[in-house]
Amino acid sequence: MGGHLRAVGELADSDPQLALRHALVARRLASRLPVVREVTAETAYAAEDYETALTEYRAIHRMSGNDDYLPVIADCERAVGKHQAALRTLRQAREAKLSVPQQVEVILVEAGIRDDLGQRPEALRLLKDAISGGRGGRQGQARLRFAYANLLAAAGRVETAREWLVSASHYDDQDALSIGEAIAELDGIEVAGDAQDDEFEVMDIEVVEEDTPDDAADEHLTTEEDQ
Q1: What single-letter DSSP state applies at residue 206?
Q2: Which pLDDT band, with edges at 50, 70 and 90, does 110 fall under?
Q3: Would you state the torsion angle of the CA atoms of residues 65, 69, 70, 76, taken in this order, to the nearest 10 degrees?
Q4: Alpha-carbon radius of gyration of the chain
Q5: How far is the C-alpha of 29 from the C-alpha of 46, rounded, in Å?
Q6: Does this model's pTM top 0.85?
């Protein structure tokens, strides 16, 4: 089993499908070990095998009782077309005591679901309310602003989306979201390799009312973080 888990670690980035095959073998050998189920879940998610990821995340949630898994369970449910189940899972998540990053994840996943269901104004509202409320600390704000910019860009509001990407970059201290590459793509500059780093994929978005980052809110959030 250990050899298969090592193989997962070595192959996860270069060949996620092969990594998943090793993870599934490890699961067959030690299905009662939470760490094995978690590795399998994460590997399946990375390989975009969302049915398997959903099964494994549900299993590790039952085994651990850790509600921080609920947002990713909802995301998997969304990915396999179970949108109403995903919304029910998110309601459960909102009633739980989630970590701050997972609270942000709840908002991001629900925004994606609302968009899938044709509720685009609601998706934008969810993100903007979380931004205005300063949810998630600096990295949470970076992710929320990045997701909001993606919605605007998909809606054809390229200039406004660019402003929000610049705003997001001020919070992305570790450059975890590769926002510079996203800005370059909006500017029509070719970026080497696959620079996709969206929080969720948004397609066929209707034009939305132009909105710009709230400078006063940015100043307020920055002041809070500096305290």
Answers
A1: P
A2: very high
A3: -130
A4: 19
A5: 21
A6: no
